[in-house]
């Protein structure tokens, strides 16, 4: 189930991924600080990094992915303009998955 899609900004990469307000209803259970076991894949389905645990916290009324997100963004080579889609997916390794589409990709 898709939770949100977001085109990344430099702030998302440097300070933490601020989750889109339009997806807050689907993210109600994320309020407070929780840990999410997450897989990161390219648009073609190739795994980019090992599963990571991302901490989601509430900051200034926004939900933000912080700890874990920084390493994931660095290791996957994320840049401003890239698009990520965040899914809930039940499988043996993780409950959540990001898919990446590079800024220049269609």
Describe the protein.
The protein has 106 residues and is mainly beta. Helices cover 12% and strands 43% of the residues. The protein has two helices and seven strands; from the N terminus they run E-H-E-E-E-E-H-E-E. The chain has helices at 10-15, 69-75; strands at residues 2-7, 17-18, 34-42, 47-59, 62-65, 83-88, 96-101. A seven-stranded mixed β-sheet has the order 1-6-7-3-4-5-2. Strand 3 (34-42) and strand 4 (47-59) form a beta hairpin. The longest helix is centred in the last third of the chain and has 7 residues, at 69-75. The chain is globular and about 30 Å long. The model has no long low-confidence stretch (mean pLDDT 77).
Core attributes:
106 residues; seven-stranded mixed β-sheet; mainly beta
Summed up, the helix count is 2
What Rg is obtained from the alpha carbons, in whole angstroms? 13 Å
Task: Report the end-to-end length measured between terminal Cα atoms.
Answer: 21 Å
> What coarse outline follows from CA principal-axis ratios?
globular
What percent of residues adopt helix (DSSP H or I)?
10-25%
Strands in their spatial order, largest beta sheet:
1-6-7-3-4-5-2
Instruction: Tell me the major beta sheet.
Output: 7 strands, mixed
Strand content bin: 35-45%
Following the backbone from N to C, one meets helices and strands in this order, namely EHEEEEHEE
What average pLDDT do the residues reach? 77
User: Which runs of at least 5 residues are low in confidence (pLDDT < 50)?
Assistant: none
The total of beta strands comes to 7
Indicate the structural class: mainly beta
GO molecular function: DNA binding
Subcellular location: Nucleus
InterPro entries: B3_DNA-bd, DNA-bd_pseudobarrel_sf
Protein name: TF-B3 domain-containing protein
């Amino acid at each position: 189930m898709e939770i949100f899609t977001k085109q990344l900004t430099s702030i998302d990469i440097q300070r933490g991924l601020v989750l889109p307000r339009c997806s807050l209803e689907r993210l109600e259970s994320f309020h407070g600080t929780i840990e999410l076991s997450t897989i990161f894949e390219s648009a073609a389905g190739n795994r980019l990094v090992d599963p990571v645990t991302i901490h989601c916290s509430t900051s200034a009324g926004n939900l933000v992915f912080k700890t874990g997100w920084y390493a994931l963004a660095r290791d996957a080579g994320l840049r401003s303009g890239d698009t990520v889609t965040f899914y809930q997916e039940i499988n043996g390794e993780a409950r959540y998955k990001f898919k990446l589409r590079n800024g220049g990709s269609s």
